[in-house]
Amino acid sequence: MKNVSMKPFIYSVAALCVIGTVFAATDAHAGSCPADKVLTTPQDIPIKQSVGMKRETLAIVNLTGWRNLGDLRLRTRRLTIAAHGIVPTHQHDDRPSIVYVLSGEIVEHSSLCAVPILHKAGEWTPEFGPGHAHWWENETDKPVVLTSSDVVPPEGLDKPEDM
């Protein structure tokens, strides 16, 4: 693998910070748990398997050696969830992520919220922290398209059969 300058990565991180600031200044984060429904102790949620979900890796940045992070990768994927499809139950105790809804709407079932959370196109949601587990369900008759950016170790990257 050829060595490349870190400048493009640093510029990318700066751009993400600017984008994050823009999103934070808007109502784009509307799809969140209502304040009175946030749980202080995670609830048990059903284990759901993937149904009608396609994952496509768009980009991976190797973070190894950057600010003593260890052997980690910054990954962005496009997820397409078919009508009535399911994103399987998974955890974010140790995997920070940001999901952005490109099109459609999808319902999140979270261990940290007493009610389902509706996410619509143009909204984003952070995913990280102790006890944070969830699964997502497309209750509509149309596909939903999301982007997901997360930090993972090399062994957490998609295998060809996951694509």
Summarize it.
This protein has about 160 residues and is mainly β.
Secondary structure: elements and pairs:
Layout: H1 7-24, E1 51-62, E2 73-91, E3 97-103, E4 105-110, E5 117-120, E6 124-127, E7 133-137, E8 144-152
Antiparallel strand pairs: 1-2, 2-7, 2-8, 3-6, 3-8, 4-5, 4-7
Give your account of this protein's structure.
- There is one protein chain.
- The protein has 163 residues and is mainly beta.
- It has a single domain (30-156), classed as Jelly Rolls.
- The chain is built from 1 helix and 8 strands.
- The longest helix is centred in the N-terminal third of the chain and has 18 residues, at 7-24.
- The two termini are 23 Å apart.
Give me the number of helical elements: 1
Mean pLDDT: 84
User: How many discrete structural domains?
Assistant: 1
Instruction: Write down how many β-strands occur, each being a DSSP E stretch of 2 or more residues.
Output: 8
Q: Rough shape?
A: globular
Secondary-structure class? mainly beta
Could you give the order of the helices and strands? HEEEEEEEE
- Beta-strand content: 35-45%
According to CATH, what is the topology? Answer: Jelly Rolls
End-to-end CA span: 23 Å
Q: How is the biggest beta sheet arranged? A: 8 strands, antiparallel
Low-confidence stretches: 1-28
Identify the CATH class: Mainly Beta
Our Rg estimate from Cα atoms comes to 16 Å
CATH level-4 homologous superfamily: Jelly Rolls
Which range best describes the helical content: under 10%, 10-25%, 25-40%, 40-55%, 55-70% or over 70%? 10-25%
CATH architecture: Sandwich
